[in-house]
């Protein structure tokens, strides 16, 4: 890769073979511009932008004459530089924004920054590098950390775990407790028997057995109510209720 | 403070430091253009005597090593306190209540397969140890708890472990199982649970 | 010939010697039971100055390495150090001098798109790492150098980067926009603007 600094002093870029070679080496238009700027042999802060533009455009023209394929960004830069040149040279009526001088300055600042980084990179690489100039210990033993697990568990967890194992693995037996209920059949038999005794209206509540157990009382009420509905459906009884949630009365239908 | 070493000594020092394996004097010499390196090696060995690093020769090969008395510093111990997992706690409890037990017996009591590592953790913790083999086909290893187990849990002996009745009385059993256990207790065929536990602690 | 080092110095020496990578003072201290190791490190650095091995600090991490002037003796067949492409070298320099930077910022300095692989080489070498995202639209990833970068290039800290102070004083680490404003403000006398214009119109 041809390095810009290696070019012979004052060599004009008119050697076509060198040009062809060097076009391969550029990493982009800014790279080419930086090389051209360096050939001016002045501080980058004092380069002539106009001369630089001419050199760049000249390069591009030659490359085109040789029918070299140029990446689009080189052509874009060429067009922009041609515009910049005309801006710098032509008299201006109104002040454009940004001014050509500002654009030129911007280009110059970019070149300075790229040049600074390129030089910094070279100085960085020239340092004493580990593994090239200085060496770490070839075969270090290494520092080891021995991890010890200190297990902990308390009495409560131990005992509870045992209880749960036993509970979990005990054979599963399902048992349903006997509950005191009045079945629908019993209620049907009771209610129809009691309606047969009287033809007057009676309250359902009065038909219930006298039971101290509240659970059994509730069961008897529910079953007797359903029994009353069933008897009414079969046409064996009449139901009456004066108001919502009022006492439910019923009467047997003869026949 | 001490006289700067001469260039050959420095070169030998750096060569040995960077080497990936012990070097013979001849190899060092070849590396350094044929210089006579023995005096430099002697000077270095003397210089490093008593430091944290020393230069030693083993079977005619020289190398630097850290001073043997500092070896303990290069290995750092770190204690990590960890709670026993649920599975390990169950296995430990089973061993404690039923010992000695085989792995198969532990599994049949737990009702699930026990991962190899679970028992290993208990062995590593020093709470369980192998105490022999059961004289049945396959001669399975049987396990029991250790004195370290008793001291960790503050037990005088395994008889201090509460029985299942006490566990329930103490409310240590899962509430959802209370009815079930009650049913079992009043069940027709005695109390399997109670028996097992009594036998185990006999 | 010289006074024997005390035990802490010996311990620090051995620890650094055995370590496979550079250690911070805090890491050494942790290894040595919390001892204050800075004086021992200073004593060791002084002791090793001028020898074939030296104790250096790179990005607050200490390690022993061979003396730079002996490179020619040790280099031999060890050209295993990564050869960096020009693009990778430039990207590395830009990250080091401007960190943290985004890929777009790197590209604006270089004036070309940076191939994906270029940054990858630096990430893989462990010299550059992603350190977060810039809180601007698109939230680009930003990159910075690592302690390994500092040790590889023999830098105590980023302040040791060659020429960084001059570059900063000259404003060459400022973005172009900032530099442009500064140049326009200082006006024509002796500034870049004036010169450019004059030269340009010569």
Assembly state of the chains shown: heterotrimer
Helix content of chain B: 40-55%
Main beta-sheet strand count, sense and barrel state of chain A: 3 strands, antiparallel
Q: H/E element string of chain B?
A: HEHHEEHEHEHHEEHHHH
Gyration radius over CA of chain B: 32 Å
Structural class of chain A: mainly alpha
Structure explained in plain terms:
The complex is a heterotrimer, with one copy of chain A (255 residues) and two copies of chain B (202 residues). In chain A, 53% of the residues lie in helices and 8% in strands. Chain A is mainly alpha-helical and 255 residues long. In chain A, strands 2-4-3 form a three-stranded antiparallel β-sheet. In chain A, strand 3 and strand 4 form a beta hairpin. In chain A, helix 2 packs across helix 5. Chain A starts with 15 loop residues before the first helix and ends with a strand. Chain B has 202 residues and is an alpha+beta fold. Chain B folds into two domains: 7-74, Arc Repressor Mutant, subunit A (Orthogonal Bundle), CATH 1.10.10; 86-201, Arc Repressor Mutant, subunit A. The termini of chain B are far apart. Residues 174-179 and 187-202 of chain B have low confidence and may be disordered. Chains in contact: A-B, A-C, B-C. The interface between A and C is large, with 51 and 59 residues. Strand 1 (144-152) of chain A pairs parallel with strand 4 of chain B. Chains B, C: This is SMC-Scp complex subunit ScpB.
């Amino acid at each position: 890769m041809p390095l810009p600094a290696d070019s012979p002093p004052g060599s004009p870029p008119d050697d076509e073979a060198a040009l062809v070679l060097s076009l391969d080496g550029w990493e982009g238009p800014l790279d080419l511009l930086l090389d051209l700027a360096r050939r001016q042999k002045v501080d980058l802060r004092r380069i002539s932008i106009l001369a630089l533009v001419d050199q760049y455009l000249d390069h591009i023209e030659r490359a085109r004459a040789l029918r070299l394929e140029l990446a689009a960004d080189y052509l874009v830069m060429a067009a922009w530089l041609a515009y910049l040149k005309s801006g710098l040279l032509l008299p201006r009526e109104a002040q454009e924004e940004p001014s050509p001088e500002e654009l030129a300055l911007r280009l110059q600042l970019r070149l300075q920054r790229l040049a600074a980084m390129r030089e910094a990179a070279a100085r960085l690489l020239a340092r004493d590098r580990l593994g090239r100039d200085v060496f770490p210990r070839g075969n270090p033993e290494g520092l080891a950390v021995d991890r010890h697990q200190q297990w902990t568990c308390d009495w409560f967890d131990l005992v509870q775990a045992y209880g749960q194992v036993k509970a979990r693995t005990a054979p599963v037996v399902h048992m349903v407790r006997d509950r005191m209920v009045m079945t629908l059949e019993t209620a049907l038999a009771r209610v129809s028997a009691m309606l047969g005794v009287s033809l007057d209206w009676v309250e359902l509540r009065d038909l219930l057995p006298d039971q101290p157990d509240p659970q059994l009382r509730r069961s008897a009420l529910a079953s007797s109510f359903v029994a009353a509905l069933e008897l009414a459906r079969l046409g064996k009884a009449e139901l009456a209720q004066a108001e919502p949630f009022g006492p439910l009365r019923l009467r047997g239908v003869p026949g | 403070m001490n006289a700067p070493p001469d260039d050959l000594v420095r070169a030998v020092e750096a060569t040995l430091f960077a080497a990936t394996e012990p070097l013979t004097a001849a190899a060092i010499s070849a590396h350094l253009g044929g210089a006579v390196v023995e005096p430099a090696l002697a000077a270095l060995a003397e210089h490093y005597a008593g430091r944290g690093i020393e230069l030693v020769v083993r079977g005619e090969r020289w190398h630097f090593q850290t001073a043997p008395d500092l070896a303990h510093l290069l290995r750092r111990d770190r204690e990590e306190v960890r709670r026993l997992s649920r599975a390990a706690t169950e296995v430990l409890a089973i061993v404690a209540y039923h010992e000695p037990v085989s792995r198969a017996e532990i599994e049949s009591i737990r009702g699930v397969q026990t991962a190899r590592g679970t028992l290993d953790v208990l062995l590593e913790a020093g709470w369980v140890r192998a105490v022999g083999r059961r004289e049945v086909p396959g001669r399975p290893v049987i396990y029991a708890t250790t004195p370290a187990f008793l001291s960790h849990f503050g037990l005088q002996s395994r008889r201090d472990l509460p029985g299942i009745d006490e566990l329930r009385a103490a409310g240590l059993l899962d509430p959802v199982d209370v009815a079930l256990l009650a049913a079992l207790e009043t069940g027709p065929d005695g109390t399997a649970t109670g028996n097992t536990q009594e036998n185990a602690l006999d």
